[in-house]
């Protein structure tokens, strides 16, 4: 096993695994730290945690447990994956987890780079852009759990860690491996331990990948991972394979469960409904009053409709409606109540014969995958950048697409099913 990865949410883990598979690495995503040995040959493992919004001490403990498991598998390099929109307030976990992993690996310098240009996440002069605008103007300032109100990543990360944070800016990244490494040395000499790195294109990420070949710990979004397989291949450690993304044939009925309130998901839900898709919203306030009847009614509605085509059950809502619910229920309770209900809905759908399931939302995916008792996923072909189809490993075979909130084209749901034939 060459690369050991720890991801702070489940959609992000799939996104990372997708990039490694496309780089020719045989990759398995596990749901939490595996309890059993992994079968078959793998070059990379992505341990998916649901730690993004946990208290920092919990996120650190979970991440260290994952690291321990990966270290015992002999991984040569380690990767801490977080969101390409950073999704981390000043109380967030990226700083504390990075610090703890560095300490455990005796690593005195690492990078932090959420750039994922294929999905229009770019970093320039330390500022994170989503599409054409700064992160804090992109809709992420309204995220239900992790509102991002500052796009300057040096500042955001520095607020979370006692280690000194610096910047490798575009001037160095654009000039290739040696200039980037020179900059690493300069920063290290100045006491910096974590460097935000600019990247606006895949070429930048490939150059960065070469520069971090001997770094024990790399941290970032999924984008930085596109530059890592080349290092293992150059060292003769990676055998070329074209079977990295083959999945079993699809079977069973089709459904979508959406708890993401991100801008892209709001558009995808609207687009699915406009195209005539069968959809039903769950009311968070009714769920809070005792979620049994509301979730059960949605399942009763879905069972006869499923035979005719994909059904969508969702709590996805515009920011003002999310805010109103949060004011009534509290941010954490609203999230937890809704996640629990959607997980129950997903379980009910699978029991009703769904075998092809899309989940929209990182936290939502975590709740659903845990409720379904899934232990590991094999990564299949990409639907849109950052989102592949996957297949569960184990007894109950389901094809799953875990879609991070802001990923995917407007017609993502129908497009994903069309890809399965
Ligand atoms: P994303 O990938 O878009 O960030 P997540 O699933 O990670 O989506 O986060 C969305 C959070 O918002 C979840 O905790 C979910 O339970 C919560 N949520 C979903 N719908 C609503 C709603 N209508 N009102 C308030 N919170 C909601």
Molecular structure report:
This protein has 421 residues and is of the alpha/beta class. It folds into two domains: 3-234, Putative sugar-binding, N-terminal domain (Rossmann fold); 253-420, Four-carbon acid sugar kinase, nucleotide binding domain (Molybdenum Cofactor Biosythetic Enzyme, Chain A, 3-Layer(aba) Sandwich). The protein is 39% helix and 22% strand. It has a 15-stranded mixed sheet, with helices on both faces. A hairpin with a 5-residue loop joins strand 17 and strand 18. The protein is globular. The mean pLDDT is 94. The site of adenosine-5'-diphosphate (ADP) has 24 residues, from helix 12, helix 13 and helix 14.
Provide key terms for this protein.
alpha/beta; binds adenosine-5'-diphosphate; Rossmann fold; 421 residues
Number of helices: 15
Rg of Cα set? 21 Å
Question: Mean of the pLDDT scores?
Answer: 94
Q: How much of the residues is beta strand, in percent?
A: 15-25%
Cross-sheet strand order for the largest sheet: 9-10-5-11-4-1-3-2-16-17-18-15-12-14-13
User: Which structural category fits the helices and strands?
Assistant: alpha/beta
**CATH fold descriptor of the largest domain:** Rossmann fold
**Which architecture of the largest domain would the CATH scheme give at its second level?**
3-Layer(aba) Sandwich
Q: Which small-molecule ligands are present, each listed once?
A: adenosine-5'-diphosphate
What does the overall shape look like? globular
| Residue windows where pLDDT falls under 50 for at least 5 positions | none
CATH homologous superfamily assignment of the largest domain: Putative sugar-binding, N-terminal domain
Oligomer class? single chain
């Amino acid at each position: 096993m060459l690369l050991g990865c720890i991801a702070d949410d489940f959609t992000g883990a799939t996104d990372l695994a997708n990039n490694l598979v496309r780089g020719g690495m045989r990759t398995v995503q596990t749901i939490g730290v595996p309890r059993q040995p992994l079968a078959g040959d793998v070059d990379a493992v992505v341990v998916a945690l649901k730690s993004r919004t946990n208290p920092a001490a919990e996120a650190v403990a979970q991440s260290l447990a994952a690291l321990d498991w990966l270290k015992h598998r002999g991984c040569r390099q380690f990767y801490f994956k977080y969101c390409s929109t950073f999704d981390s307030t000043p109380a967030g976990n990226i700083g504390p987890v990075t610090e703890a992993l560095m300490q455990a690996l005796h690593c005195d310098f690492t990078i932090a780079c959420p750039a994922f240009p294929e999905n229009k996440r770019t970093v320039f002069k330390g500022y994170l852009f989503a599409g054409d605008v700064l992160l804090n103007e992109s809709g992420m300032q309204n995220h239900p759990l992790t509102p991002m109100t500052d796009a300057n990543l040096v500042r955001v990360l520095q607020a979370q860690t006692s280690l000194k944070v610096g910047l490798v800016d575009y001037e160095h990244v654009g000039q290739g491996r040696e200039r980037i490494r020179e900059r690493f040395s300069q920063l290290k000499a100045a006491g910096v331990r974590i460097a935000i790195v600019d990247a606006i294109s895949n070429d930048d990420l490939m150059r960065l990948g070469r520069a971090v070949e001997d770094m024990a710990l790399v941290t970032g979004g999924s984008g930085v991972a596109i530059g890592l397989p080349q290092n293992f291949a150059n060292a003769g450690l990676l055998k070329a394979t074209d079977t990295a993304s083959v999945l079993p044939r699809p079977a069973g009925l089709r459904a979508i469960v959406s708890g993401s309130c991100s801008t892209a998901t709001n558009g995808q839900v609207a687009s699915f409904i406009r195209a005539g898709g069968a959809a039903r919203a769950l009311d968070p306030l009714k769920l809070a009053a005792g979620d049994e009847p509301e979730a059960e009614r949605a399942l009763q509605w879905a069972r006869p409709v499923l035979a005719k085509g994909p059904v969508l059950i969702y709590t996805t809502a515009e920011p003002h409606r999310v805010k109103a619910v949060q004011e009534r229920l509290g941010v954490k309770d609203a999230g937890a109540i809704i996640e629990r209900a959607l997980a129950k809905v997903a379980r009910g759908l699978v029991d009703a014969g769904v075998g092809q399931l899309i989940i929209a939302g990182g936290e939502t995916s975590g709740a659903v995958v845990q409720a379904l008792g899934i232990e590991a996923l094999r990564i299949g072909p990409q639907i849109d950048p950052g989102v592949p189809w996957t297949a569960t490993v184990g007894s109950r075979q389901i094809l799953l697409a875990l879609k991070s909130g802001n990923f995917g084209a407007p017609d993502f749901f129908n497009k994903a099913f069309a890809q399965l034939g």
